[in-house]
Structures are given as structure tokens and as C-alpha cells.
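Worked Example 4.2. Consider the chain below.
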Amino acid sequence: MAEASHLPKAALYYYHGSVWASVPLLALEEKGYGDDEVDLKEVDIAKGENFVPSYLRLNPKGTVPTLVVPLQTTLAPDIESRYKAVQDTRAIVEFLDKSRSAQSRTHTTSSAPSPSLAPATIAFSSLSNEVIELLHSPPADPNALFYLNARAEADLQPLAKGLLPFLHGRRDTLTKLLADSQNGTVQASEKTKAFWEVKKIAAEKFIQVFEDVEKSAAELSDDSRRRREEYLQSAVSGWAGLKEVLDTLNKEVIGPYTLGDQLSIADLHLAAWLARIAFLAGANATEDGNTIVGKIESHVGGGFSLPKEYSVAEARRRAGIPVTNADTTERQSKLAAFWDSVKERPSWKKVYANGLH
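Applying the procedure from the previous section yields the following C-alpha cells:
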């Protein structure tokens, strides 16, 4: 290991408030990677750093996370290293899982255990894929709900207070990039300029709604009133669609984790997704599963409630959590049991040390 310092390292580009960037961060902890094995490089998406040309060369979609890894054929210290970028959350986590195992720990600096997170059977693999696909589907999109977290006029002002600085930062960076590409300060293809324009229009669409939140509907122009109505309709529709997603997850999860007793790749996606939904529902990281799910149910509204059929004592036992003075008749939803199990893990406590996001 004397040559370890000469070896090129992988780099994970992430944003601390990104729901999907939290998944590989959880994976790094669960797989036992050493702190010096992967460089963590934060991309401030609130300032539009994900749109600058240097980042778009790594990830043309301008999303986080991105994992940049050295190719195995260039690991000799006297050879300039070549890299490849892995741009999809699912692919990144699978790569991290396979790259460090009990059988293969090449160049590792950590002695921590490296349990496999991949499903052990075809049936489990199918269930895992179904859950992950659902979490990344449009009806479950946590980023869309992030912007659409106001379904009544009274909800708009507090949401705008938090979102406008974020949206202004992105819009201003895109405006400057477009201007710089026109005057030649920044070299960009027509495809990239079109990409910037689309993202700028998307930011401005929300800005137009949120900048008018202090006005009543009667004070708005016809165009502003129409934009507000369309926004609120989209928000109502988006949160209503979450009912089916939550119901499906609660049915499909075996408990206490997605595939039963053992943590798997699907759980990392579910943990990050559920943390975001809980955050949007006004929950905090210290609350237990029943409280978290209760807040989500209330936020979804319409009397929505998940069935409480899972034994609390059994869930804790299967997750390896100490059971003291447990009421053997107490029941909770599977998603509540999942939350109670995952929030006790060191990986979760580290990634969400500063609260939910």
C-alpha cells in the first residue's frame, strides 16, 4: 500500500441538499470506503455550478451526482490517468457496490467490512428493480414535489421565501453563461446554449409565480393569475399522485428493509427518497417512523393513511435494534418500520447529521 498515494482516486460530485446525491453518500458508508478513497467535490446547484461548461463535460445533463473513476488500465503512477464519468444514481451505487467487496479490495485504505448490497436472488433482484424504478418515476419525483410544495395560496409565501434565492442563483448563472457565449467569453455549442435556455425558462417559470406571492389573486394580472392557477393545479395533482406511490411502496417492502432483514441497494434509494418526502412534510431527522409517516399522511391530505399491519417489536428485532418494553400488539406501517430501522444506521446518521433535505 506504499504506492496508494500515487494512485488516481475516484471523485464523487454531489450537492449536500440533493436527494439523489445522498444515495451514493450512503453507499460509501455502508460499503466501508475510507475517507481518503473517494474525493468528494461539492457542486453548488443553488448557484448553477452544475451548468458551467467544465461540469457539463462530465455530465451533459447537468445533474448530480456524478462519479468520475480512473480506468483500470491507467493506474501506474508514471502514466497519465484517463477517467470515465458515471452519471446515473443507480449506476453509481452499483459501481460502488461491486468495486469494494470481501473478494476484491484493490487499493483500499479501509479495513471496514464491505457487505454486498446486491440482491441475492432473481426474485429479490426483480423486487429491488421495481422499487427503484418506482422511486425514480415521474409520479414519485421528489425534485418536482420540492418545487410544488404549495397547494393553496396561503402556502405560497413561505415556500417562495426558501426557493427564490435558489431559483435566482440558477437563473442568474444561466443568464451570464448565455451572454458570455454570445460575446465569445465562453465557448459553447449550439446544443449547450439551447440546454441553458431551456433551464433558464424553467427557472423563470417558477420565479414568476413566487415573486407575486404577496399579491392576492384579485391584484394579479390575467397572465399572473393564470400562472398561479396552473401552478396550484400542478401541485395538487403532484401530491395526489403520491398516494399510489406510497401505497405501492408500503405493500412491496417486505420489512423492515425492502428485501427483509438485510440492507440492500434499494434501501439506499428509499431512504433518500423518504427523507426528502418527510422533509417536505415538515418532519425532522430525530422523529420516529410513526411520527414521520403520520406527518407525510397529513401532508398528502384527503384522509390518506397507510395500513398499520407490521409488528413494531418484530421490525426492531429483525433490524437488529434493541427491543425494550415493547408492546407485542403495537402495529405500524412498513414505511414507518423502515424509517425506524434505517435511521439507526451510522450511514444515515452521517449523511443526515445536519437534518433532512
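Residues 240 and 302 are 9 Å apart (CA to CA). Residues 1-5 have pLDDT under 50 and may be disordered. Compare this with Example 4.1 before moving on.
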